[in-house]
Hints:
Shape of chain A: globular
Distance between the termini of chain A: 31 Å
Number of domains of chain A: 2
Oligomer: heterodimer
CATH topology of the largest domain in chain A: Rossmann fold
CATH superfamily of chain B: Oxidoreductase, molybdopterin-binding domain
Order of helices and strands of chain B: HEEEHEEHEEEEEE
CATH architecture of the largest domain in chain A: 3-Layer(aba) Sandwich
Radius of gyration of chain A: 18 Å
Order of helices and strands of chain A: EEEEEHEEHEHEHEHE
Largest sheet of chain A: 6 strands, antiparallel
Strand content of chain B: 25-35%
Number of helices of chain B: 3
Structural class of chain B: mainly beta
Structural class of chain A: alpha/beta
Number of strands of chain B: 11
Number of helices of chain A: 5
Largest sheet of chain B: 6 strands, mixed
Strand order of the largest sheet of chain A: 4-3-6-1-2-5
Distance between the termini of chain B: 19 Å
CATH architecture of chain B: Alpha-Beta Complex
Strand content of chain A: 25-35%
CATH class of the largest domain in chain A: Alpha Beta
CATH superfamily of the largest domain in chain A: Nucleotide-binding domain of ferredoxin-NADP reductase (FNR) module
Amino acid sequence: MAGTAISGRLTGRLVWQRATLLAVTEETAGARSLAFEVPGWPGHLGGQHVDLRLTADDGYTAQRSYSMSAPAGGDLVTITVQRVDDGEVSPYLVDQLRIGDAVELRGPVGGWFVWRPTDPAPVLLVGGGSGVVPLMAMIRARRAAGSRVPFRLIYSVRTPADVLFARELRQPPIADGGLDTAWVYTREAPAGAAGLPHRITLSDLTAHGWPADLEPMCFVCGPTGFVEAVATALVDLGHPADRVKTERFGPSGS
Amino acid sequence: MTLSPGFRGRHRSQAAGLPPGQYLTTDFPVLSAGPTPRISRERWEFTIRTEHQVEHRWSWSQLQQLPVQTPTVDLHCVTKWSKLATSWRGVSLDDLFAGVDTAAEFAMVHSFGGYTTNLPVADLLDGKAWIVHTYEGADLHPEHGGPARLLVPHLYLWKSAKWVRGIELMVQNRPGFWEGVGYHDYGDPWREQRYQGD
């Protein structure tokens, strides 16, 4: 079953599985992607998440949920973690966990905020900060499936240095043809960027999204205020509420 | 057991009184699957429909005629955060069910915006559930389910449907929104019933 994307409706019991850290990609100063090997992983869809459990040597455990940033690939499960300075789990994952160390994972979880390669509708992805993580899994799933479904990504981020997956998004592989990425910088734009730093607006969504009459599926992920603003704007632009899927993904409590 | 080398954990004392796998937050995170529905109090109404298709209906002002209760409860979200001692104002489901003739064992809660969640009728009664409209002394914000949400604090928070508009009483159980995509049918945080099969 390795690599088989599940249907989204989960059946059977999700058990904790030992996950060994296989590879690390430094994404920014405060975030890295962790690729774990999980023997017997059942597969997952772009947008799903996974529960992660750490166990201290006195038996104390802590659990958190993380979105996967890559589609299923054999026994490989990749998450991208942003450090929350006063967090309990994320500093350990970003600063301490080493290749060969093990954690436990349980999943995949969540069958709503997912993109299925069989869905022909155009896709609008709107990510704020680390909310781009599950959207990246959808982009990579599209690539892996050889899909030609048109994708548009609007990525709102504080500064150029905070961009996750920067090289892949700025210089996309040829297989990402049909993916258009637009950037909104909220604090500091790169030299030569058009426009001043600003929070995402209705006109960003009009300029870089899809018209509602194309009936795209919209995925919005980010901090609460961002998700509320974008989802409300999309509804105001005529997108039916049931075509706007949202997920909160913020630093709070991680 | 898989040990995580060097992991100490910081919130041991705080985790002591929490359900398994939960951590404490003082924030009030917002989780929703879609855009926030904006429902005016004038448009708001709440309906209980029995298995015999009998409808009981309350407008906003009729809801305000019912006895006010002020539960202070702990919230446990399936995404792992818990928030303690939250205070609410609202109406007990016992008062809403007082005139409802039903033998149904299951309820489907419906929200403005199309959200649904299912739970046993018994979990709505005997002082365990409320329709609340005030949070920490202020009108419940739309992001958190205003004008009114269900509050069933002994189950994971996804059962406490935001933007609640009605309860459908069912003889046969049926999964709601999250229950249909892999989450647990009942969702008891103390038994860590997060997902199907837990």
